Structures are given as structure tokens and as C-alpha cells.
Amino acid sequence: MNISLNDKVSTGITGFDQVIDNLRLGDNVVWQVDSVSDYKKMVDFFVTKAAQDHMRLVYIRFGSHEQILEESQGVIVYRIDANKGFESFATEIYKLIKKEGKKVLYVFDCLTDLLKYWHSDLMIGNFFKATCPYLYELDTVAYFAIIRNYHTYGTIANIRETTQLLLDLYQVNNKTYIHPLKVWQRYSPTMFFPHLIQGQEAICITASSDASELFTNIRRGENRLDYWNVIFNRAQKVLNFSLKRQEETKKRLMYMLIGNDSRMFDLCDKYMTLKDILMIASREVGTGFIGGKSVGMLLARKIIEIEGEGRFTPLLEPHDSFYIGSDVFYTYIVQNGWWRLRAKQKTEEGYYKYAPELREKLLNGKFPKDIQEQFIQMLEYFGQSPIIIRSSSLLEDNFGNAFAGKYESIFCVNQGTPEDRYKAFEQAIRTVYASTMNEDALNYRMNRGLFDRDEQMAILVQRVSGEQYGEYFFPHIAGVGNSSNLYVWDESIDMNAGMLRLVFGLGTRAVDRTDGDYVRVVCLDNPMRIPPMNYEDQNKFSQHRVDTLSFSDNDLVIRDLKDIQTLDLKADKKLFMSPDYVTAARMRELGYTDRKIPDILDFKKMFIETDIMTVMREMLALLSKAYDYPVDIEFTANFKKDNSYKINILQCRPLQTKGLGSTVKIPELTNVKDCFFFTKGNFMGGSVRLSIDYVVFIQANAYLELSEQDKYAVARQIGLINKEIKGKNVLLVGPGRWGSTTPSLGIPVHYAELCNMTVICEYSSEKAGFMPELSYGSHFFLDVVEAGIFYVAIFDGHKDVIFNPDHILKEENLVTSILPQGNQFSDVIHIAKTTGMEIYSDIVSQKLLCK
What we know:
By secondary structure, the protein is α+β, with helices and mostly antiparallel strands. The chain has five domains: 5-216, 3-Layer(aba) Sandwich (Rossmann fold), CATH 3.40.50.300; 226-282, no CATH class; 290-464, 2-Layer Sandwich (Dna Ligase, domain 1); 469-654, no CATH class; 672-850. It is 33% helix and 22% strand. It has a nine-stranded mixed sheet with strand order 5-4-6-7-3-8-9-10-11. The longest helix has 17 residues, at 36-52. The model is unreliable at 1-5 (pLDDT under 50). One of its GO terms (molecular function) is ATP binding. Keywords: Pyruvate. It comes from Ruminiclostridium herbifermentans. This is PEP/pyruvate-binding domain-containing protein.
């Protein structure tokens, strides 16, 4: 390797320069020292010579130790806040290195000080591995230090692998020694002996007696735990100390596991003990935060236990979850060499540009060996029980940002050889990580101004709640619960009693807008009340398919209810199903007298003969009171033959809602033709008076005649209109379900394609087969509620409903002026500018008028 004089940089010690054949542009230099003051001596030599050579020198200040350099020394000083966390810290340093450019000299504070902020050796190694290659590419020379015997051998190994020079610095009997451990691409017969530094000289210690005397005076480190583990091991002993000491220690650990001060942090502080926090830590894989979803689940259980004064504890199914810490996510990115790509994607210009590439890489990386071993031990613990791998990002399930359904949750049925099960589990982790780059997640973060915030992805691993029935595994019931029922259709409904979206089997059908199938909407003040429909339509608007885990298919499968009915459910089937006498009567009329009376999933007996709905209502009320805010939960329940049951609280988060609003006076309607629509009930968003600038109306019959491909094209057109009219008050009206994945049931838009609308309306068209769905509680509707979008369903032809589409269709269609390429669907999409149109809703009288 030929080195020009311009490639060489001095350490400031002439003799040592000769030992290592000088520093080279691109070198990262790591000093292992006993104190920061020892490191400072080496830095002073380096800086003095750099100033003489007129080289640009930058000092990165982040530690709490003594300042190593002053600006008065001709040094540029950058102060970086390490307390913001690994990602912010590493990204900020990446940006400043990029800005400074080539052939700059750097001095960093002692890396060991980062333990005070990150509490993790692993993350120090990650920072070094993420930063140093970029410094190398830019032909810089950078000085770093670590305190000897403080870090794990794994951290030292990562640093040794990445750096160009690793040097031990010793002070023994007031003498300074440097012992090179690694000097990349340079060699001499005496290079790796220790050297005594005297002034500008470096005297090689080659005599065995001198070397032995030197090293017997040096303390060698034993096998060291990660600083993270050291902290928690020490905290375990505090359980024997005073309550005050326990509370102080608990709070410190909470900053490590839960995050910084926030409303959720305060709630955890109120309800959790040091013992609780230590139990969480004992079930964590890796280090770092456990994320919002894990925190919400754990907090809900503690609130129910404490505020319920033990009454509900016997009814709760125990959990034995594990938490994959957020640091594992960063380690995965850094160890696979993608940190630079991650940093570029976090910029405004690279946010969407680099996301697909990063997503693809996240699906195909390798995990470090020590993490793999912890994964294996966790899987051995669960055996062949089905598990679910759930996203639990730092921002998820928090006040203000629910991220409902934005990230993946993956079921692992967990069948096959240990190798097969491990492979599936690893891929599930990768899939959750990759979902951070999904379009919906990216849009959600961008729309809420979170694109540059740390979105650290932890993972919650839960045992799937349920039982094996034949070849299938599922819970008896599952669903979503809300402590406030903002979607009401009857003035007698008590909104504060809450509501459920209830399904038989896995709860996946409760959180999605299920196509061609309907969940049971339960008002907890009167579970027997049914949403607006004709009595004879109860079977049509009920659940007909069941989500289950299949042991034979080793996958999530959907089965018709009739296939599940034949199984021994190990409980009274009549709790969930009742004879469908309406359908039986219709069959008799058609001459089918020998047919068995079919069942309908209506849960009537469960509502009448068990107290589970009362318990759900009371638990939701407890949670809402503790949060001082409406809440949204996910749950399951499993029954025994004696009708006893266990409830499993899987998730809890603040329900993002703007409240009910003040009472609004509804104008008198003298002529039914004077309004666009009127309805009693079936709206969500409280009492409002909203002015409307534009109405975007989808004509049911014209839409129905389109091919499936063109129906999807209409949905994409809505997305373009959504961008064009941002900032205006827009009422979006369409047949059936907005957000359906089946175009024959509604418009298959993504939430991001209607996020700028002020009001969305679903109307029924019996002729075309379109029907709104009361899907409040689904992920789609959580997005709508969180964004403050008002929602209304119009059941045309029902009592107390007026619907006049001509009120809009008589106005000029502006679709081509707003969207020039929209001419293809001008007979389907009608955009009208409105003058003086307003929507009035009053939650007390349950009236809504648009005129």
C-alpha cells in the first residue's frame, strides 16, 4: 500500500508516529484509558500538532465529564444531546459529519459517558459501528476513548472490528505507556509491544521482565455484564430497602424501559411497583424500551387489579409475555450495515424515496448470534403454543398517536421442527420491522409531523389466548372495547356505558372492516339492543366466518361457521349461537321442511346468563377513570362448561377523540326537499356545526357498473382529490363502506386517501347491495376518530332518514377542473361547490341535518 505524505497525520508524538507509521486519513483511533484526564493528554498532543499543520479540527461534546477542548484552541465545538436517545444522537452526528465534509480531524468525548444516557453497552457498540465507516469514507481522523474494564467483551469486539487503531493507554508509577492492540494495514516487528512515552520519544518495552512488571500493575477486567444488566441486578437488591428508596430506583428503571416523562409514564409510576418493573425487565430480550403496546397492556392489567380492589383479578387470564427491546431493532439495522440508508430515509427529501429499499432490506437481514440465542430460549419456553408477534413502537398506543393498525402483527402457529419454528419466528420479527416502512405508516407519521421523530420498534410476543378445538385454535370470543360509545343510533343509548365490537374466534375480524361479514356491535348499557336493521336481516348482518389458527396448515385460516359448529367447543355452544328461526321459516316456505334449523351468532345466551358484559363495562369504566380519558382495548375471553370465563386484556390505549361538543340547535325543516340529508342517530363526532365548501359524491349505480379494476381506479382518484382539496371543508359521500377491501361492498380507499376530508358519509343502496357498516372500533375508524373526521351513515328508506342526492347532482360537476385526469370517471365522481351548506348534529336529540 503506497502512502503519500499528504495521507499521513501526526498523533503529535514523533516517536509514536514512527511506531505506527503515522495516522492515515480515514483512521478511527480508539483509546482504552483509566480516566478521561489520561485521554485528554493524548488529545492535547494531537490538537497542538493539528493546529501547527493548519488542519480543521472538530470537537464533539456530549459527555458530562470535564470538557476536553475549548473553542479558544481553534477548535469547532458541536454540542450534541445524547439524552434524546441513540437514533437522534447518531442521526445528528451523521448530519454534521456530512456537512463538515472531507479531511477533517475529530475529537469525541469519552464514549463510556453514553452509558449515563443509554444504559446499554450494546448501543455504544452500535453507535461506533454506524458512525466510523462514514468517517473513514470522508478521509477524516477521529479520536475516541472508552474507559477500560467498563464494557462487555462484545462491545469491545464490535469496536475492534470497526476501528483502524485500538490503543491501550496506561499511567503506571507516573509514567505513560501506549500499547497498540490493532493498527490496520501497518506492521513492524515491534509495533505491538508496549511503548513508554517520554516527551516526544516512544521507547519500546521488549524485555520480558519490564513487560511483566508493567502488566502485573494493571488490573484486568473479568467477564463483564452489559451495563444494562448491572443496573437491574443492583436494583433487585433494593427490594430489601425502604419504600422511598424503591420508588427512586423504580423511576430510574422506568426511564430505561418505558421512556421519558409523559402521561403514560405518570400512570405507570402511579400503578406499578419496583417489583413490577423488575419482572418486566426479566422478560426482556435485548435492551431498550418495551414500546407503547406493551406498556398499555401491562398498565391496564395493573389498573384493573388495583382499582378493582382484587374483584376482577380471578377473572383475568394470566399473561406470560416477552418484550423484544427497541435496541434490538437498531442493532439489527446497524449490524447489517444499513444505518446510512436509515439516516438518509429519515430526511424530508429521502423519507419516501428510500423507504422501499430499506423495507426490502429489513425483510432479509441477519440477527446477531447473542440475540438469536435469546430468541431460541424464548421459543423453547413457549414450546408449540401459538404465539403472536406484535409491533410495540415507542410512539404507539400513546396519548395523541394510536398508530392503530399501521404496523404488522404476525401469528406464529408454532408447529413443525424447532428449526422450522425458529425460522418462522425470525421472519415474523423481520416483517414487523419492515412494516415501519409501509405506506400507511409513513403517511401517518408524515401527516402528524412525526417523520423525523424516533420511532423505535420494540416487539411484544404474546401467547395466543384460546384453546385447541380439533385441528383449530382460537378463543371463544374476542373484540374491541371502547369506554365511550361515540357511535349511537338510538337516543336511549348511554354513551358512557361503552361499546364492544364482538366476534367469535380470533379478534382479527373485530379490528378490520370485514368484507361480506359483520361483527356484533354491543352497547354495554343494553347488550340485547341491535343496530338499525330489519328483524329478518339479523342473519344477513351477522358473522358467518371465523378466523382460526390451523395446526395442520400451520397458518391463520378462515372457516365457515358451519365447519366450526361441529367441533367440541368445551363450553356451551348456545352461549354464542341461537337458532335462526327467521331463516328456518323462509326455508319452510320454500319447501325445505327437512332441513336442520341453522344457527346465528348473536351471543344472546351469553348476554343473558353470564355477567361478562357487566364486567367488561365496569373494567372499561375503571380504565377510563384512571386514564382520565376514554380508552380503547382489545380483549379475548374463554368459557368453561359451567359458564365461568377468563378475560384476557391484550391491549389498551387512549381513545383519540375530541369529545362531544356543546349542544347544537338543529334548524327546523319545513320541506324535506330543502336538505341534502337528515338522519336520527348513526353519526359519530359529537355535537357540531360544520360549514361545507365541497361535496364529493360517488354515484352508486354508475360505480356498480364499473369493472373491478376501474373500481380500484376510482379509489385512487379519491386519493388524488384528497390531496387537491386539502385545507377545504369537504364532505365525502359514497355507497357502502369506505375503506372496504372488496370493491363490491364499497370504495377500496386507504385511510391516507381520505385523511383530509372534514366529513365522510356512507349511504345504503338496497338496489345496488351497498350497506354502511357500524364499524366504529375498527382500525379504519380509529384513524377517522383520531383525525377528528365527522362520520355519518345514511340508511336510505329507513324511518327518520331523508336522503336527496339530487340536491348535489343538480350542481355543476367540477371533477375535471379539480382533477383534469378525472374525466374518465365523471359519471361516477361528482364534485359540487356548495354555498352556505352546513352540517348540524346534536348528540342529545340524536338528530343530524345537512342543508
